[in-house]
């Protein structure tokens, strides 16, 4: 091998000193070979990811073929506008990630840092919107199959097969049913009010960075700051969107004043009954018409109307979106790593592999969401 | 892609025009698929032959596939990729297709047994 390598090395005159570069692995001939090896590796990993997710898509397909009614019924509880917003956010983050790869290839350090930061921001925004969606569903008892079955009922088929939607207006499911919507908003408003405290963690990291005069710590803190801030913004945006859809025009305006706290929960006190009972009539604007009919179904959804085993839709929903969300978190960790290295000026036109690899991973995560979105959110709405 | 290939031949740089137009196309397709959801998409001459749901899933998955191809081809640089990597990726899709295809052809196979089982249950509950 060594003899075959040598003439090649001499040909490659630009890279004579390649083996002395900081990130060259000595077992590769040159930068390109190292890059290609990494690329083959990341493609192999992405293939395992595709096959891994295909198991879940298979579950989805088999179940949808055998029980289409479950999907038509249960998907009305997913908000296609929030899902669409998340799709746009992820597509935008894919653009900025592709642009970050471009910047790394051209050796533009500032551009790379900016693009990675925006990508991280979008990733966290996505998680913020998902936080709202999961919270809302959990409060409506839209959980995975068997989640709300009492321990004593386990094993009795008839109980696990009932679709146990905690209807907002059903006093059986909540101790204080009138406050249902308010309670849901409250837990999110708590995040909004006190979530700001979570900025402490990145602040500490940045502090450590300054104390030790260590840029990596500071960059990590900065990445954490972006992420947590974006998650809070994501939650805030989804609450506003939710208010706009459920409370008609006036309500949205009221709550759209930047804060939130008393507004969101307070105004809900008054109007959540409207929105769930007779308030449908004064829904303004054609844009909201569709979603209002959705929520009308919501309010009046009858437990008896639910098909058998409807909770299995939510099992699939939580598993697929949860696994996808886990991939988003992993991607955020990887992007933070890239940010640290970008700030340290590690990447150059002949060494941009890591950016490219993480970029490919990020696009696969986006790709999976592109298929999840219509399959989960856009069924018979 | 023109603005590179200077010294390091192995970097395939995507031009901003390509990136932005792919992004624009993805956004338009996303809005289109949300807009089409819930619309009556069945052509008049096919009315009664295919159901709304069938058309809907075909349309939304076609749009998703177009979006996915755009992402893979341009954002993931598949158009400039090494043949080996392309082959690997296509193989993975092939195996996904095999997996889903075989699983789906198998699902209907036990319907008769399930139905007879369910009939038994109903009979049992009818005769206390």
Commentary on this structure:
The complex is a heterodimer of chains A (381) and B (128). Chain A starts with a helix and ends with a helix. Chain A has 13 helices and no strands. Chain A has helices spanning 2-11, 31-66, 68-74, 80-106, 109-139, 157-160, 180-194, 200-212, 215-256, 260-276, 289-300, 311-343, 353-377. In chain A, helix 7 (180-194) packs antiparallel against helix 9. Chain A has one domain (31-143, 170-377): Cytochrome c oxidase, subunit III, four-helix bundle (Four Helix Bundle (Hemerythrin (Met), subunit A)), CATH 1.20.120. Chain B has 128 residues and is mainly α. Chain B is built from four helices and no strands. Chain B has helices spanning 16-36, 52-75, 83-107, 111-126. In chain B, helix 1 (16-36) packs antiparallel against helix 2 (52-75). Classes of the chains: A mainly alpha (381), B mainly alpha (128). Chains A and B meet through helix 2, helix 4 and helix 13 of A and helix 1, helix 2 and helix 3 of B.
Task: Please tag this protein with its features.
heterodimer, A: 381 residues, mainly alpha, Four Helix Bundle (Hemerythrin (Met), subunit A), 13 helices, B: 128 residues, 2 domains, 0% strand, elongated, disordered N terminus
């Amino acid at each position: 091998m060594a003899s075959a390598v040598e003439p090649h090395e001499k040909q490659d005159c630009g890279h004579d000193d390649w083996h002395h570069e900081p990130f060259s692995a000595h077992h590769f001939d040159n930068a390109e070979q190292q890059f290609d090896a990494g690329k083959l590796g990341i493609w192999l990993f992405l293939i395992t990811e595709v096959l891994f997710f295909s198991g879940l898509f298979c579950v989805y397909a088999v179940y949808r073929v055998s029980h289409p009614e479950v999907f038509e019924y249960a998907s009305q509880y997913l908000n296609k506008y929030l899902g669409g917003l998340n799709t746009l956010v992820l597509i935008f983050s894919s653009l900025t990630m592709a642009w970050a790869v471009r910047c790394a290839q051209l050796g533009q350090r500032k551009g790379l840092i900016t693009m990675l930061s925006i990508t991280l921001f979008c990733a966290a925004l996505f998680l913020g919107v998902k936080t709202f969606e999961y919270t809302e569903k959990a409060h409506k008892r839209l959980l995975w199959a068997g989640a709300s079955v009492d321990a004593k009922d386990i094993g009795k088929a008839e109980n696990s097969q009932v679709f146990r939607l905690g209807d907002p207006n059903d006093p059986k499911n909540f101790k204080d049913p009138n406050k249902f919507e308010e309670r849901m908003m409250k837990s999110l408003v708590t995040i909004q009010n006190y979530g700001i405290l979570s900025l402490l963690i990145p602040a500490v990291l940045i502090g450590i960075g300054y104390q030790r005069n260590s840029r990596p710590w500071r960059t990590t803190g900065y990445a954490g700051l972006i992420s947590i801030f974006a998650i809070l913004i994501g939650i805030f945006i989804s609450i506003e969107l939710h208010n706009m859809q459920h409370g008609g025009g006036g309500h949205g305006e009221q709550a759209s004043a930047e804060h939130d706290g008393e507004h969101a929960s307070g105004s809900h006190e008054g109007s959540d009954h409207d929105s769930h009972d007779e308030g449908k009539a004064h829904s303004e604007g054609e844009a909201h018409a569709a979603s209002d009919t959705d929520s009308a179904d919501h309010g009046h959804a009858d437990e008896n109307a639910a098909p058998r085993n409807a909770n299995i839709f939510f099992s699939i929903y939580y598993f697929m979106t949860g696994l996808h969300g886990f991939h988003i978190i992993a991607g955020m960790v990887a992007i933070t790593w890239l940010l640290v290295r970008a700030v340290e000026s590690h990447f150059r036109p002949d060494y941009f592999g890591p950016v490219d690899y993480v970029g490919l991973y990020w696009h696969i995560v986006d790709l999976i969401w592109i298929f999840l979105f219509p399959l989960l959110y856009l069924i018979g709405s | 892609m023109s603005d590179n290939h200077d010294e390091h031949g192995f970097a395939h740089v995507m031009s901003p025009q390509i990136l932005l137009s792919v992004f624009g196309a993805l956004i338009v397709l996303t809005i289109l698929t949300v807009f089409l959801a819930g619309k009556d998409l069945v052509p008049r001459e096919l009315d009664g032959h295919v159901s709304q749901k069938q058309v809907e899933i075909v349309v939304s998955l076609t749009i998703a596939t177009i979006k996915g191809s755009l992402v893979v081809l341009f954002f993931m640089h598949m158009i400039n990729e090494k043949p080996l990597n392309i082959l690997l990726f296509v193989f993975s899709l092939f195996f996904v297709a095999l997996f889903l295809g075989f699983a789906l052809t198998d699902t209907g196979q036990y319907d008769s047994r399930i139905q007879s089982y369910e009939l038994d249950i109903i009979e049992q509950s009818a005769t206390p």
